[in-house]
């Protein structure tokens, strides 16, 4: 359906009364509200709309419907900047309460926030303007909402109903995500700001605290969980944006605080898949503090946890469980998200030999005779699932191969034993290790990797491996 706002219709509003402007805009918004394609709204019409907005200072009742119309039109990025003149951009920012402190009108603030979400997403010009005048005020207001501290310039929030206040908080967080995703200046400033790091961490902690209360049987605030989840999700995305490019520059205190939150989310019994994914995304970029992730077990009570060689492996096990759930749920639309799980597990096993040995025990237990008659990618074990990823077209296949190689202590023979030559050929070819296949096995290649019944039938797989090697070498040749 072609959506048309006639130029004549907008021109008539320039001379209409405030009441008439408000009424016609409300009718127009009701008509356009379900649409997102506005290519038919020409440049001339957009210019007249901008003039209508610029002349609306003395028509306060028209501000909310004007902001709503801007929000609707901003769903379509085509010709959007024709409408977003400097006065229009300032009109949106002023209404949002993020430019200058003034007499904030609650309805206008919420509608302006919604408008900012769309315009910041689709307009680089709007992002540039916002970055110059509003980022510090945005952070300040999110902090006030997080702490429930409505003093000074935020005193007006005291009179806002809780539901509306929570909506404003969520839209502010979505705006924070958008500006932190696009601006390296915001990333650098907030990544080095104790206020920013503490604020976004506290929002995630509020979600974790609510989850822990539900585990302990406190259900009074269970109805608040969806709102906490939405806010925590946005806050976690902002944390990722402002830390992933400068992990080495983040203060150690905040690195440890993020690590603690990540641990709680991944180990939490009721943590949502969405927050689990955000936690793994953060983990994949953090400088790992192994003493926090896999601490030494000291007390008898601590020894009740999952452990290996007197190190607490409850986090490693939770990460493997999360990765297996992702493998089971994975589909083409989010296949690349699996790479963060594999990359995080790879980092953990590379940084900690105890974690590597524990994960190897869980993923690559000693082989048995039944493993000879079944392809490595057949079955429901975690090993089988990872091997299937190694042969998939997704980006994660390389990380899956590297992860298995690390678990095999970078032994070519052990990798082939557990994954099959065909599945490991890509990694070995890319690493220049195909020639290592026929080297004599070291003692460690068989150590803890095969049972007696496997050794009894091991000779059955030698001929098949030789044929596979010929096939792989022929197909890995480069063209002239």
From TrEMBL:
GO CC entries: cell cortex
Keywords carried by this UniProt record: Chaperone, Cytoplasm, Guanine-nucleotide releasing factor
GO biological process, one term: G protein-coupled receptor signaling pathway
Domain of life according to the entry: Eukaryota
Record bears the keyword Nucleotidyltransferase: no
Cross-referenced InterPro entries: Chaperone_Ric-8_A/B, Gua_nucleotide_exch_fac_Ric8
Localization: Cytoplasm, Cell cortex
GO MF annotation: an example: G-protein alpha-subunit binding
Protein family (similarity comment): Belongs to the synembryn family.
Name of protein: Synembryn (inferred by orthology to a C. elegans protein)
């Amino acid at each position: 359906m072609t959506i048309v706002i006639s130029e004549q219709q907008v021109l008539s509003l320039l001379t209409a009364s405030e009441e008439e402007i408000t009424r016609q805009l409300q009718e127009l918004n009701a008509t356009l509200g379900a649409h997102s394609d506005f290519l038919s709204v020409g440049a001339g019409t957009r210019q007249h709309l901008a003039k209508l907005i610029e002349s609306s200072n003395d028509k306060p009742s028209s501000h909310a419907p004007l902001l709503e119309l801007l929000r609707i039109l901003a769903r379509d990025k085509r010709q959007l900047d024709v409408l977003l003149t400097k006065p229009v951009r300032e009109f949106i920012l002023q209404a949002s309460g993020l430019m200058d402190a003034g007499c904030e009108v609650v309805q206008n603030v919420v509608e302006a926030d919604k408008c900012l979400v769309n315009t910041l997403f689709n307009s680089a010009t709007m992002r540039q303007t916002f970055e110059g005048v509003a980022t510090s005020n945005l952070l300040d207001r999110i902090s006030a909402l997080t702490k429930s501290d409505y003093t000074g310039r935020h005193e007006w929030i005291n009179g806002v109903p809780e539901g509306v206040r929570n909506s404003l908080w969520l839209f502010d967080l979505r705006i924070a995500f958008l500006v932190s995703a696009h601006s390296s200046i915001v990333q650098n400033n907030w990544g080095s700001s104790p206020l920013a790091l503490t604020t976004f961490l506290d929002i995630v902690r509020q979600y974790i605290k609510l989850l822990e209360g539900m585990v302990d049987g406190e259900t009074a605030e269970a109805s608040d969980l969806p709102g906490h989840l939405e806010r925590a999700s946005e806050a976690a995305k902002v944390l990722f944006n402002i830390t992933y490019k400068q992990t080495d520059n983040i203060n150690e205190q905040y690195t440890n605080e993020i690590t603690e939150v990540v641990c709680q989310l991944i180990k939490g019994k009721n943590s949502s898949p969405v927050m689990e994914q955000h936690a793994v995304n953060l983990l994949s970029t953090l400088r790992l503090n192994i003493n926090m992730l896999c601490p030494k077990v000291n007390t008898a009570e601590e020894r009740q946890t999952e452990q290996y060689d007197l190190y607490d492996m409850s986090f490693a096990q939770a990460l493997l469980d999360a990765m297996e759930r992702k493998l089971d749920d994975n589909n083409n639309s989010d296949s690349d998200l699996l790479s963060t799980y594999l990359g995080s597990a790879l980092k953990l096993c590379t940084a900690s030999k105890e974690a590597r040995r524990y994960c190897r025990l869980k993923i690559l237990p000693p082989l048995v005779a039944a493993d000879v008659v079944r392809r490595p990618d057949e079955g429901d074990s975690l090993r089988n699932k990872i091997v299937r990823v190694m042969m998939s077209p997704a980006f994660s296949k390389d990380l899956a191969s590297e992860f298995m190689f690390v678990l095999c202590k970078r032994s070519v023979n052990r990798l082939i034993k557990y994954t099959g030559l065909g599945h490991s050929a890509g990694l070995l070819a890319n690493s220049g290790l195909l020639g290592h296949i026929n080297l004599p096995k070291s003692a460690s290649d068989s150590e803890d990797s095969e049972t007696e019944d496997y050794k009894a039938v091991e000779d059955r797989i030698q001929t098949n491996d030789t044929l596979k090697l010929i096939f792989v070498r022929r197909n890995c040749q480069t063209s002239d």
